[in-house]
Amino acid sequence: MANITVNLKVWRQAGPKEKGAFRTYTVETDTDTSFLETLDILNEQLVANHEEPIAFDHDCREGICGMCSLYINGHPHGPATGATTCQLYMRRFSDGETITVEPWRSAAFPVIKDLMVDRNAFDKIQQAGGYVSFNCGGAQDANNLPISKINADLAMDAATCIGCGACVAACKNGSAMLFVSAKVSQFALLPQGQVERKRRARAMVKKMDELGFGNCTNTGACAAECPKCISISNIARLNREFEKAKFSD
Q1: Angstrom distance (rounded) from CA 193 to CA 183
Q2: Between the CA atoms of 72, 75, 81 and 82, what dihedral angle is there, to the nearest 10 degrees?
Q3: Residue 163: how many CB atoms within 10 A of its CB?
Q4: What's the CA dihedral at 111, 223, 8, 93 to 10 degrees?
Q5: Which of 14, 21, 149, 193 is deepest in the core (most CB within 10 A)?
Q6: Which residues of the chain have pLDDT under 70?
Q7: What's the confidence (pLDDT) of residue 246?
Q8: pTM to 2 decimal places
């Protein structure tokens, strides 16, 4: 562990309709401190100086909830691959370095305050997908549902999406295709998701378009910046699911 001093160039914005700007703060931390903990240290300094603390989202701080949605030095969640902001440690930065911290930049994720954005659009897409209908049967019937290991693994990989919005922030078009494709795939690959399969694909894509997300142009930035390494192959699966659903009408 070593002490380091960094300059945090942070986006400050009082509200959704207010004009924002960057402000630079100097904070002393150590290399074993997480990035969110460093923001906590900075906020303690600001409060002690009777200044407004920086608003940012956080919850579990274990890389599960997807709340810690920060754009750090041009990367959603920062420079660490396959990690969320709360899993980013200050040892990735150098003493005296200036670190730029911004909120997600997407029309579908309007800024609430400072580094906080409204990601309710993802909830609305998920709600549009709805529920799954299947007969559970008794406990002894669990092994009677034939699922290939390949499909089970692919469904589990898709289900690891935490809905943080990094894919949208990374995409030059603000597309939500990686998120939607992961949520469609996790059910489309399993027998439990077959009853609403076509309706789900249509409904989620329709809601995504209604909410103003951009189109996918296959740049791959979403998968490259995803903290859970969701595969871009899910987007191809979503396209197939949507096409089949359209022709079934």
Answers
A1: 11
A2: 90
A3: 20
A4: 170
A5: 193
A6: 136-143, 249
A7: 86
A8: 0.90
